[in-house]
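Tutorial handout. Part one gives the primary structure; part two gives the three-dimensional structure as tokens.
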Amino acid sequence: MEKKETQVACKSVFKSGENTTLKQQFTQMWIEIINQIEKNKRITTEKR
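Part two.
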């Protein structure tokens, strides 16, 4: 039987073995999320 690879849709990006998230890590993840949203908006607008 074939094994199917599964992709994780949600992962923890803040856990680095510490009990708290560093302000810099938190800010960097927000920047990445906002950039992804803006990129998706451009792609959606171009298709119209």
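Part three, for discussion. The chain is about 50% helix and 0% strand. The chain has a mean pLDDT of 75.
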